[in-house]
Write a structure and sequence with these properties.
Layout lengths: L8 H11 L15 H13 L3 E5 L2 H11 L7 E5 L5 H8 L3 E5 L9 H7 L4 E6 L8 H11 L2 E5 L7 E2 L2 E2 L6 E5 L12 E5 L2 H10 L28 H11 L2 H19 L6 E2 L12 E5 L3 H13 L20 H4 L3 H4 L3 H4 L1 H8 L1 E5 L6 H18 L1
Parallel strand pairs: 2-3, 2-4, 4-5, 5-8
Antiparallel strand pairs: 1-9, 6-7, 8-9, 10-11, 11-12
Family: Belongs to the DegT/DnrJ/EryC1 family.
GO molecular function, one term: transaminase activity
InterPro entries: DegT/StrS_aminotransferase (IPR000653), PyrdxlP-dep_Trfase (IPR015424), PyrdxlP-dep_Trfase_major (IPR015421), PyrdxlP-dep_Trfase_small (IPR015422)
Amino acid sequence: MAGAELIGQEELAQIQELFSGEKTTLYRYAPGNYKAREFEEKFAAYMGVKYAHAVSSGTAAIHCALAGAGVGPGDEVITTAWTFIAPVEAAAALGAVPVPVEIDETYHLDPLEVEKAITPKTKAVVAIPMWAAPKMDEIAEICERRGITLIEDAAQSLGATYKGRKLGTIGKVASFSFDAGKTLHVGEGGMVITDDKEVYDRVAEFSDHGHMHVPGLPRGKDPRRAKGLNYRLSEVTAAIGIAQLGKIDYILSKARENKYKIKERIRHLDNLAMRPFTDEAGAQGDTLIFKVRNPEAALQFEAHLMAHGFGTKILPEAIDWHYAAIWGHLLKAYDRYRDANLEELWPKTGELLQSSICLNIPVLMDDATIDRLVAAIISGSEKIG
């Protein structure tokens, strides 16, 4: 679980520093407060971007990113049919129409499907790197050629790269999450990054009821130009984020080390098809994905792993929350989906996801646990034939 495994004295020290002053106030915009700003500045420096704005969750982050990019009522937002539901919820909350499309063999947005889905109403493409990069060159080229905003919801991929560029720095704006399953863990929190000052300003405004944060004006006197919500991050959460960010290189290196220890010992199993990558060296290492023969074999494999003390991560365990065909409660509100059989809209995605196993690779996984997991994978491979 990455950063969640490493909560300890460093986080406590940051909180103690926060509480060491007189009249401590945990509200980020209180006079003299600085932890949220420090977290933002350090995060922007790590990512190599001009601007970062911290918010209360990863869902808040993608909501703010879409709003900052100007997504609004009637706009169409293309994204992947395999993602956590939050980006689709965020687009819907802005009055936009979510347009999930099929994934390709890398388990990401298929550029060909993106191109096919573009209409005159398409405002943005949200690429969602699930622990690794999609075919970013192709996706970015399509967006540039068609005049569409590229947004990266890199919640699952903090620290991952594509051809040397950090994921989250390729599109106009990007969002990150810091919940329990992410690279960094602060309880609940998120971040939006961009090099575009206008987008940054609109993100900050949207996250704070529309306050424009005009320098020199009292908070109650500053103007507003658009509506917003309360997605503010507290000083306590920011303090934890500062400590977690200091551990990111260790988190990434250990997860990748553990992943390759496992992968090298099972790559000979010819009935497990390892996930292909656009840039495996840059992948975020806390997840290992492989495909088996069919959905029935995947469920059998999952049950075998569970019997040996190992759970799966999203596939198959939580596919309902990560696959567009299951989201009738949201998508059926739109005319284009109301009378459709959602399972029939994304057949390639459904077959791939339902036939896959996704394994979490903890940072603090010792060699004995790795040995047990490898043995369970090998015996599971033998069991499904």
